Records
---
Amino acid sequence: MTYQLFYWPQIQGRGEFVRLALEAAGASYRDVAREDGVPAMMAVMRDPALAHRPFAPPFLRHEGLIVAQTANILLYLGPSLGLAPKDKGGRLFAHQLQLTIADLVDEAHDTHHPIDVSLYYEDQKPEATRRAKAFREDRIPKYLGYFEGVLAANPAGPQHLVGEGLTCADLSLFQVVEGLRYAFPKAMARLEPSWLHLIALRNRVAALPRVADYLASERRIPFNEGGIFRRYEALDG
Amino acid sequence: MTYQLFYWPQIQGRGEFVRLALEAAGASYRDVAREDGVPAMMAVMRDPALAHRPFAPPFLRHEGLIVAQTANILLYLGPSLGLAPKDKGGRLFAHQLQLTIADLVDEAHDTHHPIDVSLYYEDQKPEATRRAKAFREDRIPKYLGYFEGVLAANPAGPQHLVGEGLTCADLSLFQVVEGLRYAFPKAMARLEPSWLHLIALRNRVAALPRVADYLASERRIPFNEGGIFRRYEALDG
């Protein structure tokens, strides 16, 4: 049965981690708000009769279930899409990595919104400049150095984060590198030489035929300043 | 087999969500860093031979597995402790709520550290004051109003977040209310009348015999200004 993904239609945002998994698996899905508009998404999310309601997009509808929270959606999708480890320990570890990626994504978001999500970046620019500096200098190296270490320590080899097959976590880590390159090109150019396994993984994911097709298609929304990863001159360095 | 929990010994922090689940279930566990010291925890976490390595505490060791990320630990523990729904849809929804609680906890943390986690609160006090205002006025009502709505919409009744039994999400939501009351007593006193089901759930959890025993014991570390929920006069109002 076709998956129905509900997410904001004009940004990659958190929905992109789900889109990438569906695309990499060649799954049949509808990106509902892009096809039918945002009101169609809000009508589902705000249905007062809905017991399992989302706090926010993205959410997925499939076989009578509504599943929200990016990492939870990928936990649900992984086994069906062939993008989850088969053993229990591997699945828990893949989900752990997915949650660590979610933490990194939250921190990337807060570089441009350190004070108040309801205000514009321009209303919190001095604070954003200060937070982005700490993010570039301390947090990016800590997180990506961690993932480099996870790849190096994988008993099955550094081709994947967990075990010997592609998982949602690999795809999400690709997206994180793409996003950080977009938002912080100078910082990433300086830092990337430290992460050989990570960049090799990024390149392998980009070259997967279905992923490459997707990235070249109109389905891939370009990065922009409405999303999580935003390019503001003052925040890079 | 006894669970081994690894977390900072002087704060409730994120580890408290795990401690509460273990205590509420009457599980046998060791709080390793409290019993053996922080070096014992760091030795496990930084073991270069460890493939499934944590990014940060808390983590759990059990039956040869190391599991990190608070929500992932509870995903692992829930079924064994009798604190997870039995049906697939219920389990996914409980985990979704757990992840939404994690987002709220992150935002509560950032009220005192909006700029840089490696600096003191005192080094980012004006920014913290501004962020805390937005948190009190917009974010707390949005999150706790959401959980109130989830309780009201539970087809099994508003006694629990999911289905008709106690889950880790109920326990964690209790902890969130306790933490917010500690950190923002004035704001919470003003807001709480809006959340009848939520406060009733908080009271039922507090009265569970094992939870009440735990809260009255020395095992419950008092809230303090090293944890996530901190009481700073300037941040409440």
Note: Chain B touches chain A through 48 residues (CB under 8 Å).
---
Amino acid sequence: MPFSFLKNLSSKFGQRRQPVVLALYLGRWLLISALVGAIGGSASALFLVLLDAVTEYREADPWIIWFLPAGGFLVGWLYHTWGTTSAAGNNLLIQEIQKPTRHLLPWVMAPLVLGCTLITHLVGGSAGREGTAAQMGGALADQLTKLLRLRPRDRRTLLICGVSAGFASVFGTPLAGTVFALEFSTIGKIRYQALVPALLAAIIADGVATAWGVEHTLYPTIEVPALTVWTFGATLLAGICFALAARIFSWASHNVAAFFQKQVLYAPLRPALGGGLLLVCIVLLGTTKYIGLGIPTIVAAFETPLPPYDFLIKIALTALTLGCGFKGGEVTPLFFIGATLGNALSPWLPLPLELLVGMGFVAVFAGAANTPLACTLMAIELFGAPSGVYAAMACVVAYLFSGHTGIYGSQIIGNSKN
Amino acid sequence: MPFSFLKNLSSKFGQRRQPVVLALYLGRWLLISALVGAIGGSASALFLVLLDAVTEYREADPWIIWFLPAGGFLVGWLYHTWGTTSAAGNNLLIQEIQKPTRHLLPWVMAPLVLGCTLITHLVGGSAGREGTAAQMGGALADQLTKLLRLRPRDRRTLLICGVSAGFASVFGTPLAGTVFALEFSTIGKIRYQALVPALLAAIIADGVATAWGVEHTLYPTIEVPALTVWTFGATLLAGICFALAARIFSWASHNVAAFFQKQVLYAPLRPALGGGLLLVCIVLLGTTKYIGLGIPTIVAAFETPLPPYDFLIKIALTALTLGCGFKGGEVTPLFFIGATLGNALSPWLPLPLELLVGMGFVAVFAGAANTPLACTLMAIELFGAPSGVYAAMACVVAYLFSGHTGIYGSQIIGNSKN
């Protein structure tokens, strides 16, 4: 009895003190999120400026792609020498969020992934940027763990904040960044415990990057048709196609990586060899439209019909680039793949071109990364609120049909999809 | 060995068959969701039309409020006679979603909550409509359980679909309806397993209600200021105020209900007595602006300064109405409370009136129902995508500060908020 009385009292006292506890919690995480946001947003800003510079350089002087094997070797050698622990990239982040250990992410991960992503884009690899931003954000944020003496549970929140800050600031989408960071470590689960810190870090990072003068690609505000049985059914069908593309992409990436790891024992040779193969492909294709981020093609997809095989070539080149060991993210290539696939579906489905392209843009990513809510929010942030319902359907169906694997091998299954 | 071989084989076979399994899953839930959506959407449409009619009648002839005690007795008597099992309302739904039993929700729940909500609004109670829509959707959907011979796990998904359909169609917000249905049964958790069916049911129900000619209140598209330290800080402060209002509302509702249950033993007398008290309050206040849904005041809050005590009076009258046993939802009163509180905060905080009102509209609800993501989506669907970041901050902070209780006593804690 005395024990239960004490417990009762302390719980009542706890209730009384609750507002103070919550205010302290908010204040503490506001400070930490501000730090993480400032660091992550600044890192993204630097990254985006440099990425623009190398992309411009490559486009002005496309002969630089002859350095693909050399650039590949350099990337491979840098990771072989300095980055053995951080080579797992996003998967390392995911593992630490799932089960925080006492081993901090090495700070060298940040400059390493930054430099190697820039090399990848300079010589003409086909890659993205969110992986780089998330890894920089995560690795830099993690350096605060010691400084602030955070417990493992708080370190997890800190890492989520780092990812949220990186993702939000690199795409200019704070809500998608927040939910992506909460959603990406486990399939079918959101880490609500980190909701407040992740949102604050995302908003601050986006604000900081904007303050540094970063400008994001502007996509059209998509007008949507009234929902009928036909548009509804067409959206479901499109979602299944987007899931297929996501599956092919994940499958190709895994297999290319496995092939190189098995066949080439000296790690730095893998991207060198892969770079050579890429070079051959680009020369045979006779175009540079499939390398780099591919933003011009993504923008064009919203306006004019494109060749229906664009998405397949982009899948192949990106799987080759990232599978052999070049660095960068998967997301912008996935935008490219989805947008061009949506474009290709346009003659066959009774939906406006713009809408199909926008749905593909987010839905292939939703299927490959298993992040349907983040991708729905991304559509809303990039294409406006009216696109939300169609985007949600496409993302959710792509998520369902993409199966229980994806681009992040370390994701665990929190809840089955069906 | 032979066992593991068999397991391997069957898992490989499972992988092969996966697309077929998923297609069957989608097809099955598409049919069920279409049924639930059609039923829930039609029920909401009927409800909204009748609700408009009784509201018009009351506004044309306000003397009907003298029937508050009689109406209260009728509501109490109807539930006492026919609705003992369904009196728990939303909490019953929550319990069945958490742990599906073999006892179906009684179909009588649907006409009962519909009729009693209409009586409540006719005689001038202060109440909402989402509880009614969710309970009609849930109870009607549950009747399919036997017809389709669903297993308990599928029955849970079916109930979530019913709530999703009801919520989406009564407010015209399919995305908020989906996430609300996934979010509301457990604090800090989303039921991803039901993602696809809930979204389909929401979209179909909203489409069906629209096809029946239902029109929803149009709120202004909110323009937002650039994010600065001041607007950021003001939003956090506003979020804390909204949480406070949510706490006061939850506290008042629970206590009024407990008071009536303890002091008045014959259940039908509770709303009769409560109705009498309400009548006295309304006569003393000398205005009918705080009764019914209160949509005109919500709309006015976006445009002109209102008395700063509006939200308190609405809290008191709603807690009295629902606590003594009248029927209806909590959400529209929570919109009223949040909108008028946002309006009242406007002279003190460096944010535009419209934005503060819109944030309050969703954030008090987010705090009281513990559904921050659904409420963020609701802001986006009602006020446009640009309001999303501010609304998210307000909702998330209101969610954090509202504590681990809320208007739904049966909610369990899935994940701590801090």
Note: Residues 10-211 of chain A form a domain with the Clc chloride channel fold (CATH 1.10.3080.10).
